[in-house]
């Protein structure tokens, strides 16, 4: 059973809309935790050191100031959540040995006995409640607020009964699952959160012992840990775990093959070298290709007919193949990490298919007239502004292919690119009509602000989507706890696809390789109690 402190987001420690925009668009496993578990543990003795490659420095390690990213991958070694999510999507025990869901606005957790912090301090129910209240206080500017802790949350802790009660004023149907994304800090760290940037103070199976920013981070195994996922301990885990910053995948591949790294995520062409050497990765699908449209005043894409025409003009299968080097699979829904709480294929039959004749008919229905090599309406030429990621050779090639296919329809296209640092300003602005951001989250509820509500800076609805069917189905889902609302959540996705508000079209394989180790992943995080050194 997997340990679930991760969310598939990468946030700064600011509460601004722009930081949240950046947060929910990253997809790489070790850089944004948008991948899920697979594989299992094999034989292996305790002891030894495991060295894991990271593609970037984690920055702050404060669990209340990050959500996702390399820091989140590392923090699962030092911190525990109240509950975990198993590989089959079921909720299993963490720090809490029991829980009771009361409707869509309250959950009671019964803490395990005997849980202690790394320094031996017993963990009390009031300590856990204090952390939820800390995150829920807007003054603290935690990026977890609104993502893994609802905005109207209050928490209480009864130390005598070891009961933690988390309550929200507004419906929060996934409150139980959201708690799996909160890494619980101990009271000393919570009283001085800034000290956690380069140190750890949690109940997890390891303690951070050495920090060399930009180079490596060392964790040492603690004694007496018996409260891991499902009640497992760390007695068979390695004595030390070192996270080594290795920005180049080629370098990481060389280090892995030579034995100087034990584990690394490799997504690009170097993956073939590792597979040829006999190393078998753990793999999971993660959303890579997705288009969204600007639907505000002044945008041609505000017209559903135009959106349909643009998608009819595209061969999404071909685009997906180019973007993934032929290794991708068609998307089945919005970007939710595996295991999806509400599985199903919400896309097949609900998006326009490749058909230039139907594309032209849609433009005609929207009042556009074919004129030579283009389209015109009321003296205006049909032209769209398309923005896409500036990195990833295959992604760029796929975006350029999309431009060619739109031009084949007679649509003029101007292009621009964004980076991780400019994404917020680009999507928060109004100078684009079509964009390619693979937005990924852990739970359906976390994606709602992207397709309803205000645009930036007041919200995260990039395209200004206003889909009544989506809003109606979301409202119905939000009053049903946990998976009871799945039919409505899936229906809400389908409503977006049928109106061509968003077009997910390809998932990529996210691969983690190991040599001389066995391991299991949970939403991008290595499960410490399942890690073995051979």
From TrEMBL:
GO terms for biological process: peptide transport. One of its GO terms (molecular function) is peptide transmembrane transporter activity. InterPro entries: Peptide/Ni-bd, SBP_5, SBP_5_dom. Pfam families: SBP_bac_5. Residues 91-441 form the Solute-binding protein family domain. GO terms for cellular component: ATP-binding cassette (ABC) transporter complex; periplasmic space. Keywords: Signal, Transport. It comes from the Bacteria. Gene3D superfamilies: Dipeptide-binding Protein, Domain 3 (3.10.105.10), Periplasmic binding protein-like II (3.40.190.10). Belongs to the bacterial solute-binding protein 5 family. This is Peptide ABC transporter substrate-binding protein.
């Amino acid at each position: 059973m997997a340990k679930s402190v991760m969310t598939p987001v990468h946030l700064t420690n600011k509460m601004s809309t722009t930081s949240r925009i950046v947060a929910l668009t990253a997809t790489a496993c070790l850089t944004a935790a948008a991948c899920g578990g697979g594989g299992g543990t094999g034989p292996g003795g305790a002891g030894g050191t495991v060295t894991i490659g990271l593609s970037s420095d984690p920055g702050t390690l404060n669990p209340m100031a990050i959500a996702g990213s390399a820091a989140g991958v590392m923090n699962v070694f030092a911190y525990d959540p109240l509950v975990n999510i198993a590989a089959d999507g079921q909720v299993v025990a963490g720090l809490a040995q029991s829980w009771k869901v009361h409707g869509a606005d309250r959950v009671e957790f019964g803490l395990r006995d005997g849980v202690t912090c790394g320094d031996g301090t017993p963990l009390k129910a009031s300590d856990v409640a204090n952390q939820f209240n800390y995150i829920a206080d807007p003054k603290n500017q935690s990026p977890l607020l609104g993502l893994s802790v609802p905005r109207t949350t209050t928490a209480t802790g009864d130390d005598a009964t070891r009961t933690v009660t988390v309550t929200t004023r507004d419906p929060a149907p996934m409150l139980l699952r959201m708690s799996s994304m909160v890494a619980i800090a101990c009271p000393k760290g919570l009283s001085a959160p800034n000290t956690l940037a380069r140190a750890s103070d949690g109940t997890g199976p390891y303690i951070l012992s050495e920090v060399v920013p930009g180079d490596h981070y060392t964790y040492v195994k603690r004694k007496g840990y018996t409260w891991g996922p499902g009640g497992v301990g760390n007695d068979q885990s390695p004595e030390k775990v070192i996270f080594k910053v290795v920005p180049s995948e080629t370098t990481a591949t060389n280090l892995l093959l030579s034995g100087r790294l034990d584990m690394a995520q490799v997504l690009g062409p170097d993956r073939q070298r590792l597979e040829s050497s006999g190393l078998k990765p753990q793999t999971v699908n993660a959303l890579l290709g997705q288009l969204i449209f600007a639907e505000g005043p002044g945008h041609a894409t505000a017209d559903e007919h135009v959106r349909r025409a643009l998608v009819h003009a595209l061969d999404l299968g071909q685009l997906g193949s180019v973007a993934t080097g032929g290794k991708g699979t068609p998307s089945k829904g919005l970007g939710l990490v595996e295991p999806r709480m509400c599985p199903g294929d919400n896309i097949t039959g609900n998006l326009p298919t490749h058909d230039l004749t139907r594309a032209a008919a849609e433009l005609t229905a929207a009042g556009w007239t074919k004129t030579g090599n283009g389209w015109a309406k009321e003296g205006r030429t049909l032209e769209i502004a398309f923005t896409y990621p500036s990195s990833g050779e295959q992604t760029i090639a796929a975006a350029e292919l999309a431009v060619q296919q739109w031009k084949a329809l007679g649509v003029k296209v101007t292009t621009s690119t964004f980076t991780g640092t400019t994404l917020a300003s680009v999507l928060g602005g109004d100078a684009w009509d079509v964009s390619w951001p693979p937005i990924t989250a852990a739970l359906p509820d976390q994606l709602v602000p992207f397709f309803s509500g205000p645009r930036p800076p007041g919200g995260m609805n990039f395209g200004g989507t206003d889909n009544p069917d989506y809003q109606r189905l979301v409202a119905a889902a939000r009053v049903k706890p946990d998976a009871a609302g799945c039919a409505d959540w899936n229906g809400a996705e389908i409503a977006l696809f049928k109106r061509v508000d968003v077009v997910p079209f390809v998932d990529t394989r996210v691969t983690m390789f190991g040599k001389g180790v066995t391991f299991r992943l949970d939403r991008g995080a290595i499960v410490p109690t399942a890690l073995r050194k051979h």
